[in-house]
Design goal:
Layout: E1 4-8, H1 13-24, E2 28-33, E3 48-51, H2 60-64, E4 69-72, H3 83-104, E5 108-112, H4 141-158, E6 163-168, E7 170-172, H5 182-189, E8 195-196, E9 200-205, H6 206-219, E10 225-228, E11 231-234, H7 235-246, E12 253-254, H8 260-270, H9 280-285, H10 295-301, H11 309-322, H12 325-328
Parallel strand pairs: 1-2, 1-4, 2-3, 4-5, 5-6, 6-10, 7-9, 8-12
Antiparallel strand pairs: 9-11
Helix pairs in contact: 1-6, 3-4, 5-7, 7-11
């Protein structure tokens, strides 16, 4: 009998690619989605679609029946657009999925968290799986929400459920129809990537993230978390590379740290009235070098990021052009 896996968040960037990868393994895939979900990414796939919502526990009962594994990838990744939904979806939704998994006797759950749950480092420090979230809810709601969701996972482990947590960094690659990280490339194409701050980020290709999820299923230790990252890059490196790819002028304006607090406050105020490409919280986070040590995932999972940031950005730009996003820019 073919093994069955449930994927929550199946219509999103990570969830849909997980569905493809599992099907490629010969696994029967059950894709959970809400009635209002955009199905474009999973419509061509030979999988079982089931309507439900992680915030409605009764809809999860038929979804988990007969399932061996669950990949819980449902989340509000566009936290700057809908900050009010972030915490409830992450915490309550994760609690509901894990409760349903325990009741149904699911063998293992892989929880898609984020490096955001690790907080921010001290100067010159690489973040590892040992770091705990060290900011307030108002400072970074997404990281707070992911940290709380991981707390739900650890509690489920104490109650006997096998849960492995993966923490992807900024995910880039083709297929991001909701323009989460792909908005970086789109904004560069629009000529808006004119400035940089002194911090940095880690960017990983979507295919490496998916491979990391499967390695976590096969080799991860229950109750442990694993960083699925790529390259550590300064913001200046990121935007200069993007400018080369899209054929725009390189960023020419340096934003010093002393100007970030007042500008972030202005973004928070303006964001109440119009949709912006970033919010005050993101700008505040840009002061930090959010760089990560991948050695735990490398040694325990055999995880190795095989694709560069430039490759991820180039493939994203090609995909955006093919899908017509650049014509609307």
């Amino acid at each position: 009998m073919t093994d069955c896996a449930l994927v929550t968040g199946s219509t999103g960037f990570v969830g849909s690619r997980l569905c493809r990868a599992l099907l490629g393994r010969g696994v029967r895939v059950r894709a959970l989605h809400r009635p209002s979900s955009d199905l474009r990414l999973i419509e061509p796939l030979a999988l079982d679609r089931i309507v439900g919502d992680v915030l409605q526990p009764q809809t999860l009962v038929p979804a988990v029946e007969g399932v061996r594994w669950i990949f819980h990838a449902a989340a509000r990744a566009d936290y700057w657009r809908h900050p009010e939904d972030v915490v409830r979806t992450a915490v309550e939704g994760t609690r509901n999925v894990l409760a349903a998994a325990r009741q149904a006797g699911v063998e293992r759950v892989v929880l898609t968290s984020s490096v955001a749950a690790l907080g921010v480092p001290r100067r010159g420090e690489l973040l590892t799986e040992e770091h705990d979230f060290n900011l307030k809810l108002a400072q970074f709601p997404y990281g707070y929400a992911k940290s709380r969701a991981e707390g739900e996972a650890r509690e489920a482990c104490r109650q006997g459920l096998e849960v492995v947590i993966v923490n992807p960094s900024v995910i880039l690659g083709p297929g991001d129809i909701h323009l989460i990280s792909a908005s970086l490339v789109l904004e560069a194409h629009r000529g808006r990537a004119i400035l940089w701050t002194d911090g940095g980020i880690n960017i990983v290709h979507i295919e490496d993230v998916i491979r990391g999820h499967l390695l976590a299923l096969d080799r991860g230790r229950s109750g442990e978390r694993y960083i699925l990252g790529g390259e550590n890059l300064t913001h200046r490196q990121v935007f200069e590379t993007l400018a080369e790819i899209v054929g725009r002028r390189k960023p020419w304006l340096h934003l010093p740290g002393c100007l970030i607090p007042p500008l972030a406050a202005a973004l928070d105020l303006l964001g109440r009235f119009v949709e912006l490409p970033l919010n005050g919280g993101q700008l505040r986070m840009s002061r930090h070098h959010l760089f990560y040590d991948l050695s735990k995932a490398e040694s325990e999972l055999g995880y190795r990021p095989g694709r560069s940031f430039r490759q991820a950005a180039e493939e994203t730009y090609t995909w955006l052009r093919e899908q017509g996003f650049l014509k609307r820019a």
